[in-house]
Sequence to fold (220 residues):
Amino acid sequence: MAKPARIAASILNADFARLGEELGRIEPYLDFLHLDIMDGHFVPNLSYGPPVIASLRHVSRLFFDAHLMVTNPMALFEALAKAGANSVTVHIEVYPDPARAAAAARDLGLQFGLVLNPPTPFAAVAPFLELCDLLLVMSVNPGFGGQGFIPEVLEKVEAARKLIDSRGLAADIEIDGGITPDTARLARRAGADAFVAGTAVVRAPDPVGAVEELRAAVRD
Fold:
């Protein structure tokens, strides 16, 4: 059974010249912050890393979830922990057997999650959900903000919800990509617990109102 819904913002498309100000405005309305770290190799885009996270940590008390779209995530774990990240989420496409990565994260006091891209079947992560605090189902192909929601991934959300509930596991189910009130509502019905919105929040004329609309859409 889905837990109370949680809303996160991704800062990927925020104005980095005003990042602290933009985060401060919406922080009271968020449950956590989603940090998209890209290396230009695993995905074609390049974003930011631990120094930006450390700067944000000075001005924010939110839970920081670092989504690592990189070819060597474990190389960043220690720097991210020192910067103030609370959780690392790595792609099953990078670690088909993620047990070592999960152990490394926990040794540093970090929570651990797995991500699967739209083409990747749920079966790839199913054997490893016991390792996870979070399963992130990508509803766009990762690398760039502002893409359209891929509805076919909702079948994976449903499969994850069924398996997590049947095993009594603690992992949350998060969805990221093309999240709007309409798509968030669909994902909530499929069993998602956490919702990451980027463009729909940080580029909205009224970011606070956009978060509140998302929360209303997934309220049980």
About this structure: The domain at 6-217 is CATH 3.20.20.70 (TIM Barrel).
